[in-house]
Amino acid sequence: MNHEMYSALSGALSNERRQEIIANNLANVSSGGFRRDVPLFATVYDRISGPAVLPSGRETLEYNSFAVYDGSWIDFQTGNMLETGSSLDVALDGEGFFAFKRASDGKIYYGRDGHFRLNEKQELVAMNGDQVLAAGEGDEPLVVAKENFQPGDLKFGKLGDLVLAGEPIGALRLVTFANLQCLEKLGDCGFLETSFSGEPLPADKLVVRQGVRELSNVNLIEEMVSMIEVARQYENQQKIIISLDEINKLAAKGIVAA
Predict the structure, then answer these.
(1) Pick from 196, 205, 201, 131: which is nearest to 170 by CA?
(2) Are 210 and 158 within 8 A, CB to CB?
(3) Percent of the chain scoring above 90 in pLDDT
(4) Rounded-to-integer distance, Cα 182 and Cα 194, Å
(5) Which of 61, 88, 139, 218 is the most exposed place for a label (fewest CB within 10 A)?
(6) Cα 226 from Cα 152, distance rounded (Å)
(7) What is the pLDDT of residues 223-232, one digit of tens each?
C-alpha cells in the first residue's frame, strides 16, 4: 500500500471517529448539564523514502503525514439556560459542579444538571434518584427536615445555601477541580475525580440561580454543519481510495504484461 493510500485511509478512519463524537453530542443536545466532546487529532510522520538532497547540498528525509485520533477534549463552557420557575430547579453560573451520590453503588460523582426533586425521605435528589450532597465532607445528602411545607417555600441563595420559611436548613456542596480536563466522564452528564484532576475544591466563584435549569452546551447548528462536513470529507476519501486501488491494479497488470 502506497503512502497516498495510507493518507486517505487514515483520514477516513479519523472522520469515522469524529462522526461518532458529533453524533453523541447531537444525541445529548437536550440533556441537562451535558458537556460536548471535541475530537483531537495528531499528525504522525512516516518516512516514505530515503535521503533526499536539497539544492543546498544538505541531505534530508522525505516524510508523509497521517492523521490519527488522539482522544477528545471536554468543552466546559456554560450550557444553555432554561427558565422553568420551579423552586427545585437550580443552575450554576460559573465553573463548578454539584456533588451526587449514586443510588446504585454509593459512588460519588459530579455534574451540572440541577433538575432536582424530593424523595420519600425528604432528601434532595436528582431525577434518577441519586442523592444531592450537602456542603461539608462525607456523603451526607441535603435533607429538608421539615413537615407540612410546600416545595415553593424552599429558597436557594446565590452561594447554594437553602432556606425554608426564613430558616437556614443546609447548603449545596459546590466544587471545582484544578484540572478539569483530567476528569473522567461517567455516562453522558457525570464526572468522576481522578488522580490527575486533583481532589474537589470549594467552588467560590459560582452563582446559584433558582428556577433555572442548565441544558447542554451543544450548538445544534454548528454540530449539524460539522456532521455534513465530515460526511463530505469521508465520501471524498472513499473515492480517493477506490481510485488509487484501480491505479494499483492497472500498474500490476502492466508489470505482469511486461
Answers:
(1) 131
(2) no
(3) 61
(4) 7
(5) 61
(6) 42
(7) 999 999 988 8
